[in-house]
């Protein structure tokens, strides 16, 4: 008798590349060590112990910058972020207030920071609200995604959907237009009014019956952990790489919008293979409500008047080193620095996404890499690893197991590319929002623990929360890491 059941699909993520300029050290750390040696050696030979003592602050400070770590990173690598934050704070760029007496130019989004230059246009044919970034030269449209249950499906059905999603990403990579996709899973606590309302409108048995009592007891048990989930997908088009196709559709933003409509239709078709449905492409009111809800957690689009994109931004924003305060909430952004290092099922983020009682947004930005560029990157990585291994062998440094694992990950990427798969650069960000600062710190700690249960490691993006919030909480498919 043969077993007809198939093994569940698993996935393993490659480690972040650790290769540096010399022996795994980055160029900045090597420069600090060289500066310390340039001060230490001459002072020791010229003035002996006296010169060594007099120059101790110089060479010891350089070595501290190279080897002392702050939140997992050497000080020299955290110094640019800290300096940039202090400069922005001194110049008043960490504080944003709406000025009603000075209205913004028509067609621009009232967002703070480097997102202030974003503009929007309404597609005449589809009515979709498209966001144009004149600096990054991108045009973005956002769709509301409907998807059936996944965890309770059979292993074969799960594998089919995962394969369909991978083919959708491979299609984006094959177009050569530099399209980027951002997936947002928005989760916010719910008082359970939806569950209770459904029961009140659908129940047929009297409230005194045994079945009704048991069901109402179940509702009272689960309503405390109830949450509302909403999935959005932002499709961003690189106007530079897609310029030939845009010229065929018409010049300027009108031609870009026409070509983006074609990409939207193609994206919808590819999603169907994974049983995903683009329920609607957000119009102005839907996109404005999404932006407004991110800055004002208590905002309810059903109660307030239909918002406009001109006034969908925040009223006030204060950026601090480890969090950002906006309108009626406090937020912190976590970067998923490590993904599961062992084989994990495709639903490994279940514990993080369905964490109860915390308002958060999980953002996955996926950037397909063209095959030619991916192969060049792999060749360079292979040369770097071989060169570093030769350097360590020459000076007698024992090679770490992590070096061989990273080299094997590069070879696996090359094998996947040759087999016809797409190479994807992805970034995971988690935005945690709470009404008060103490509640925010508690929610961040709970979210970090849930990430560990999912096999991930997170780091707080200190010193860059304003930009990180725009990239992680808003469906604009913006990049934070250049």
Q: State the total count of DSSP E strands.
A: 15
Q: What structural category arises from helix and sheet content? A: alpha+beta
Distance between the termini: 55 Å
List unreliable stretches of 5+ residues: none
Furnish the topology, listing elements before pairings.
Layout: H1 27-54, H2 56-67, E1 69-70, E2 73-74, H3 75-90, E3 95-97, E4 119-122, E5 129-133, E6 138-146, H4 155-175, E7 180-189, H5 193-202, H6 210-222, E8 227-238, H7 243-249, H8 252-272, E9 277-281, H9 284-295, E10 316-319, E11 324-326, E12 329-338, H10 350-353, E13 359-369, H11 371-395, H12 401-418, E14 423-434, H13 437-453, E15 457-460, H14 465-473
Antiparallel strand pairs: 1-2, 3-10, 4-5, 5-6, 6-8, 6-9, 7-8, 7-13, 10-11, 11-12, 12-14, 12-15, 13-14
Helix pairs in contact: 1-2, 4-8, 7-8, 11-12
Protein architecture, described:
This protein has 482 residues and is an alpha+beta fold. It contains 14 helices and 15 strands. The chain has helices at 27-54, 56-67, 75-90, 155-175, 193-202, 210-222, 243-249, 252-272, 284-295, 350-353, 371-395, 401-418, 437-453, 465-473, and strands at residues 69-70, 73-74, 95-97, 119-122, 129-133, 138-146, 180-189, 227-238, 277-281, 316-319, 324-326, 329-338, 359-369, 423-434, 457-460. Strands 3, 4, 5, 6, 7, 8, 9, 10, 11, 12, 13, 14 and 15 form a 13-stranded antiparallel β-sheet that branches. Strand 11 (324-326) and strand 12 form a beta hairpin. The longest helix has 28 residues, at 27-54.
């Amino acid at each position: 008798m043969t077993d007809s059941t198939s093994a569940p699909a698993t996935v393993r993520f490659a480690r972040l590349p650790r290769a540096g300029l010399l022996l795994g050290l980055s160029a900045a750390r090597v420069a600090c060590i060289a500066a310390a040696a340039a001060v230490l050696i001459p002072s020791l030979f010229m003035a002996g112990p006296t010169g060594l003592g007099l120059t101790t602050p110089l060479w010891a400070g350089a070595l501290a910058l190279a080897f002392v770590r702050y939140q997992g990173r050497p000080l020299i690598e955290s110094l640019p972020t800290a300096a940039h934050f202090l400069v922005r704070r001194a110049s008043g760029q960490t504080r944003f207030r709406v000025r009603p007496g000075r209205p913004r130019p028509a067609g621009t989004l009232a967002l703070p920071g480097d997102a202030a230059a974003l503009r929007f246009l309404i597609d005449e044919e589809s009515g979709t609200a498209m966001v144009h970034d004149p600096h990054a030269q991108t045009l973005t449209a956002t769709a509301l995604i409907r998807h059936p249950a996944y965890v309770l499906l059979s292993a074969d059905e799960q594998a089919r959907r995962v394969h369909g999603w991978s083919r959708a990403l491979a299609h984006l990579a094959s177009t050569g237009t530099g399209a980027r996709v951002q997936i947002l899973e928005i989760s916010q606590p719910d008082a359970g009014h939806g569950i209770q309302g459904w029961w009140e409108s659908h129940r047929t048995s009297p409230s005194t019956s045994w079945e009704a009592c048991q069901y109402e007891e179940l509702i009272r048990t689960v309503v405390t952990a109830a949450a509302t989930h909403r999935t959005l997908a932002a499709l961003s088009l690189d106007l530079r790489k897609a310029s030939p196709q845009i010229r065929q559709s018409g010049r300027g933003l009108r031609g870009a919008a026409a070509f983006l409509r074609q990409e939207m239709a193609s994206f919808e078709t590819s999603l169907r293979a994974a049983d995903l449905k683009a329920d609607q492409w957000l119009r102005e009111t839907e996109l404005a409500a999404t932006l407004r809800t991110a800055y004002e957690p208590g905002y309810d689009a059903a109660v307030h008047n239909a918002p406009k994109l001109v006034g969908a931004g925040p009223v006030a924003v204060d950026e601090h080193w480890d969090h950002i305060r906006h309108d009626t909430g406090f937020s912190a952004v976590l970067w998923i620095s490590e993904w599961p290092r062992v084989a994990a099922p495709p639903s490994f983020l279940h514990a993080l996404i369905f964490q109860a009682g915390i308002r958060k947004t999980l953002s996955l930005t996926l950037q397909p890499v063209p095959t030619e560029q991916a192969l060049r990157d792999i060749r360079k990585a292979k040369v770097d690893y071989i060169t570093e291994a030769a350097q360590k062998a020459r000076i007698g440094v024992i090679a770490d197991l992590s070096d061989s694992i990273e080299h094997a990950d590069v070879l696996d990427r090359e094998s996947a590319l040759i087999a016809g798969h797409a190479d994807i650069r992805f970034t995971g960000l988690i935005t945690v929002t709470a009404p008060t600062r103490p509640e925010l710190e508690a929610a961040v700690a709970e979210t970090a623990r849930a990430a560990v249960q999912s096999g991930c490691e997170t780091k707080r993006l200190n010193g860059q929360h304003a930009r990180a919030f725009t990239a992680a909480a808003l469906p604009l498919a913006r990049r934070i890491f250049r």
